[in-house]
Amino acid sequence: MKKISKHRTDLLYLAGLALAVLLAVLYQQRTHALWLWSDWSFHASRAEEIYQNLKAGSPLTYIATHTFHSTGVASFLFYPYLFLYPWAGLRFVLSPVNAFYGWYFLVNLATAWLSYCCMKSFSKKALPSLLFALLYTFTPYRIYLGTAVFGEFLAVAFLPLVFLGIYEILWRDRRKWYLLAIGGALVTYAHLLTVMLVLEFFAIIIIIKLISDRGIEKDRLLALLKSLLACICLVLPVIVPFLTDFVGHGVTSAKFGLSYTMSLSQLLLQSFGFSRGWKLSPYLLFFLLAGWLWIKGRFDWTVYGLGWLSFILASTIFPWHFLSKTFLAEVQITARYLSYTGLFVSLLEAKYLANGITRLTPRKRKALTVLLPLFGVLTSCSSMYLQVQVMKHPQRLASVRRSSLTKLPQTTISNQDYSKIFNYQVVYGEYDYYPAAAKKYRKQIARQVALLNKKKVKLQTKAGSNQLTYTIKSKGGKLDLPVLSYQHTRISLNGQTVSYQVSQRGTVQIKLPKGNSRIVVSYQPAKCYYYALAFCLLSWLTLAFYIYKKHLS
After folding, report:
1. For residue 202, what are the CA distances in angstroms to 162, 173, 258?
2. pLDDT value, residue 3
């Protein structure tokens, strides 16, 4: 009871955050519709593949056999998918629409609660923690990510933990090195491009530390090294497939270079609008512009500077045209830096706003504490208002043949049309992670065109967990199957494991005997992948035991 009484304020604030998140999600869910656009179909297809495999009793997914036109593309080997399991799992108990909103609620709740806990660890105060959780969770750019850009949406949930870990190692308690290791691993499980952006800011912070403190103490460097090694152990299952099947094997990834930039005027105008998009909220923008009036202390000025730097990087104020051929262009969309602007500015605004609120009378403080979560809900709803109005009138999605390769239109759908999504071509990412040789023939492969002795032939195809089964009756010859070939692709012909060739299309090609043939194409990871998976689980258990033991001591 004493522990409950001690943490009563924290529990009340966490409950308030949960209620705020629930109301914000219900605002969209009450339409009983989904808004399909941008990357939505890419991630929905991955969640659907996991769901189909789980139904068949297969817990791991490597290649796409039910979705992505059954080409066997490795959209799972090279793009982490751990956090899509809750979405797939909810499909067993909820309708497709409600399964998505259930997953969306869980991600937002995790973001709000983790933000609160990180700020509480940083400030040791409850009110700034509540304010930070609200400001960060309901940042308009983050809400925009939650409409389709789910990889980044998941990753930014863990940014507070990453930067808390950096702060502890470099400035406060280096014995909490594990925070950075855990945060880095969770970001890696969600979105690899965000890892690159985090490393950019980490490098900047290291430079600031070196200049301001004229170096870094040896014990802090050792803590950084421990954190790095622990993080590598935790993410080995993500690293290994790149080493075994990607590096040196001619597999392509997302298009290199900047795809979208935005001017400062666009950023400012959007920030005061009611539509979702690449923007900050008016109150975050206000503090960014006028925060210098209140900021005190070197550390706060550092955070404020990082907020401004990320804001500049998000727009064309930064000379991106000079860096379009460098690794920095991997960011693809400069607006991604707004997540970091939101993080740094939210931290400072929460701190100084809380200082102002504590000067009020107890009655006014209590009233504000109740109103603040509602304010967060209104912020979210205002960003989603126009979208929700459209979602109130879902459209019927036309039935199409898979072979038509019709790109999924931007539309709203209900439960009855959900299954039709997967007959359409994914808007972005359909051909990501194709072997380079397959890019030229990508549409032919996606249309499931098989070639026997270089002539088109019809096959009967059955999708299974990480495998595709083809049956054909022929006079024999070289059969070029419409399934992509990777380093650990395996072939079974009439029950016997056989070798195969990689065709000029970058697909599987085998020598076919005369008569009836049954070909099974599957993907079987290298043994080191399973060792990496086991070592990763052991690392998590070891780290959990270490933290528990440290907590007891």
Report:
1. 10, 18, 22
2. 55
